[in-house]
């Protein structure tokens, strides 16, 4: 991201703000490694608090799910001109291996289709390289529109429709 554009800088700031607004992400120590128009990379540091099996030190699969869901949700900011409320509709995760104990876990996620109502995302969780995934996910997120106005006041979502939009 050395040659990042002003839009990419805005996306990075929005992704960081999104992450800070999620208490459990803060508690788990997640950070944004990168965020630009192509997607996000989120880091989850290893700690004893997230171990699922104390004998092996392997991260609990529920924590991997939390990382993937959070990264997918954060990635929605890369596809939208302004932040919107986009709750998870569906999330599928294929666990393809177990994380190595004592090492951070990363999630690389990008939206691949955006409609007036839905954002479709996909990504991987990995440690050594994105080419060696530990898990793969696809997620769908409902676009509720810009719901937070000045000073956190909730506004009504706007109804949106596109001709020929089959995802609703």
TrEMBL record:
One of its GO terms (cellular component) is cytosol. Keywords: Hydrolase. Gene3D superfamilies: Hotdog Thioesterase. Signal peptide: none annotated. Residues 57-132 form the Thioesterase domain. GO terms for molecular function: 1,4-dihydroxy-2-naphthoyl-CoA thioesterase activity. Residues 149-168 are annotated as: Disordered. Residues 159-168 have a biased composition (Basic and acidic residues). InterPro entries: HotDog_dom_sf, PAAI_dom, Thioestr_dom. Pfam families: 4HBT. NCBIfam families: unchar_dom_1. This is Thioesterase domain-containing protein. It comes from Parendozoicomonas haliclonae.
């Amino acid at each position: 991201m050395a040659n990042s554009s002003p839009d990419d800088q805005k996306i990075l700031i929005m992704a960081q703000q999104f992450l800070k607004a999620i208490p459990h992400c803060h508690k788990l120590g997640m950070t944004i490694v990168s965020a630009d128009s192509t997607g996000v990379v989120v880091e989850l540091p290893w700690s004893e608090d997230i171990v699922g099996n104390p004998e092996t030190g392997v991260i609990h699969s529920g924590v991997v799910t939390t990382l993937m869901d959070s990264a997918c949700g954060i990635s929605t900011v890369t596809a939208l001109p302004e932040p919107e409320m986009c709750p998870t509709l569906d999330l599928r995760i294929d666990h393809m291996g177990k994380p190595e104990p004592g090492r951070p876990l990363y999630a690389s996620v990008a939206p691949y289709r955006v409609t007036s109502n839905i954002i479709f995302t996909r990504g991987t969780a990995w440690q050594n390289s994105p080419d060696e995934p530990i898990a793969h996910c696809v997620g769908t997120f409902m676009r509720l529109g810009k719901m937070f106005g000045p000073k956190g006041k909730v506004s009504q979502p706007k109804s949106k429709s596109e001709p020929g939009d089959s995802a609703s």
